[in-house]
Amino acid sequence: MKVLATIWKEFLTLRRDPGGMALIFLMPVLLVTVMSLVEDVPFRDYRHFSFDIVCVNEDHDTLGDYIEQTLASSGSFHLVKEYEGKPLTKATGMDLVSSGHYRAFLYIPAHATQRLNGKTAIVVQSLMSGFGIMDHPERDTTEAVEIKVVFDPVIQVNVKQSLLYAIEKIVASAENKVLMAKFSEQVKKMTGNNDTMPRPDLSKMIAVTSEKSYEGFDELAMNSVQHNVPAWAMFAMFFIVFPLAGNFIKEREDGSLLRMRLIAGSRFHFIAGKYVFHFFVCQVQFVLMLAVGLFLLPLLGLPRLVIGNEVLHIALAATCISLAATAYGMAVAGAFRTHQQALTFGAISVVLLAAIGGVWVPVYVLPHALQVASSISPLSWGLELCNDVFLRHTDFRQMLPQIGRLLIFAAGCLGLAYFLHNRQNTR
Amino acid sequence: MPAILIDKVTKQYAGSTKPAVRDLSLIIERGEVYGLLGHNGAGKSTTVMMICGLLRADSGSLKVFGDDPAQHGPAVRRRVGVATQDIALFPSLTGLENLQYLCRMYGLTPDHNKLMALLERFGLAADAGKRADSYSGGMKRRLNLIASVLHDPELLILDEPTAGVDVQSRAMIIAYLREMNAKGMTIIYSSHILEEVEKLCQRVGFLSEGVLIEQGPTADLLRKYGTDSLENVYLTVSGRSIDV
Question: What does residue B10 show for φ and ψ, rounded to 5 degrees?
């Protein structure tokens, strides 16, 4: 009865505080939406990433055309061949990158195909001479084919590496094709067989494939939505420390808490009512954040959040996270005397726990020391629990370690809060 | 059995160099209105907190209606109402909602008619549906007093119940206290306004530096110090200006 009365009192208080409502519900929605949009690009698979490359192909032959066509058909790159209606040259291409108009410039020199053919012929002749079926080749005086890639200094290292890797892969493929063509040409010359020789596809000798670690979803990959929605949901839920501790300390300062202490047997119910109410606030936040991931973000062109099919597991995860977040707020409220102390500590501690907990960037990309540190962050446990339920499709037994950590943390915080609040009662 | 029996109670806060209350002995009879006076930091709040069982005395004994508040805090608090100097209300709730909520916290079922009658008694019925933070200082003070008597306490402790209130509010509060006292309620009254204390309290005690330096029936003290105001008595016994 007293707990319910306090829950109702807290509800009325929140309902009549538009600023508080916005802080608790609207800000997290905005946060998760903006962060998902902002972090969408770094999370994207480069197959779906179109990157402008200034391209000057002075070869105008097989190699240059092959590189151009392969890059263009990959979908990841868009080749810029003209600027302001004029064809590009090596000098203008360099200028466009050095002036920051474009991030990368690909230069394929004149006679690249001719040189590659010449070098390949020597390689083939050298190989065949080893079997004694051809003379030793003359000394190779042909210059190496030099395909230049120039980058804007501001380009991200991972984008640069991806682009270089793509070009190297295309060039290697082109080399293989030319090598095999030359080889079969020589064999035909030697055997007098004019039939078309079969050309083995070297690219299919070793296949590297990826498989899902579970069954159940057709298409799934960690993306901006899949990371940001649970991550910022954790952040928003733990940020309950802000209204909870603020509200608690305000009531302590204006004497309302003293009144509760003066009413026999009401203090525990008062504190329990606050805890339960803010627990439900966290639950609503969690549901709201999931709704954003499921319905709002897809409307903004982002992938839909995948939450799996285990509603009970989702509810259990949300409950454990909410219990931990609210208990943390209770402990902070009990530990500090003033608004300023509690809110400053609460805000900074949540930001720090979020940083090491993998809210901004996934834990696996953090430096080793921070990865170790993340193991003490309840936000990290919560996030892992969400990933377990949403992505890994784990069963209840596999969820237990994270559930255990969160519940122990909640119990520890509640114990601390009880001790701190009790200490104020009888000194 | 007296309402309050305090015998050589001492209380010193951790980190403090001197006791907040020292060797305090005091008896307040049932049905009495007792004025507890003293400057800021004299030990009044500490004494009140010990009476309510929110602070534990270091030594001595303290009984409220025969119970030790440190041992039986909840039982004592059920019989005691405290109107603190701070307006201990919930500002975003209406006046009526505040009282309904506090009734529930006292373990009572809010009786709308009784609450409205109380609000009417203090001239707040018309504003019962307005948020408490929209009330004037006097209205808040009156609501604060109502909030302290919802559980019909036998002992009412009032700390500056008329501070910063208009004449009308003060008259309402004093009249109500007289009425309650006439019905048998014991009242401990602390105020800066010594004229009020003089009119309302049958006995007064002066605390200074945690020590009860003088106490007695109001009329006897006035006679003893040859004056017609408690203010002069206070100035004489404390040797300081009024800074209650």
Answer: -125, 140
- B153 contact residues in A (CB cutoff 8 A): none
Q: Give the residues across from B5 on adjacent strands.
A: B27, B63
Q: Which residues of A touch B106 (CB under 8 A)?
A: 263-264, 266
Residue that is written with structure tokens 């806060």 in the block: B13
- B21 contact residues in A (CB cutoff 8 A): none
Query: What whole-number distance in Å separates Cα of residue B208 and Cα of residue B225?
Result: 18
CA–CA min distance A333, chain B (Å): 18
Domain ranges of chain A: 2-43+221-425, 48-204
pLDDT given at position B243 = 46
| A-to-B residue pairs, Cβ atoms closer than 8 angstroms | 81
What pLDDT score was predicted for residue A194? 63
The ipTM (two decimal places) reads 0.84
**A385-415 residue pLDDT tens:** 988 888 777 788 888 999 999 999 999 999 9
- Cβ within 8 Å, pair B101-A13: no
Sign of CA dihedral A383, A385, A386, A387: positive
Closest chain B CA to residue A262:
B77
Per-residue pLDDT tens over the stretch A28-50? 899 889 988 887 766 665 545 56
A263 vs B: CB within 8 A: yes
CB atoms within 10 A of CB B86: 15
| Architecture of domain A48-204 in this structure | 3-Layer(aba) Sandwich (3.40)
Mean pLDDT, chain A, integer: 83
Each residue's pLDDT tens digit, B81-133:
998 888 888 989 999 999 999 999 999 999 999 999 999 999 999 999 999 99
End-to-end CA separation in angstroms for chain B = 30
Cβ <8 Å between A2 and B73: no
On whether any CB of chain B is under 8 Å from the CB of A254, the answer is yes
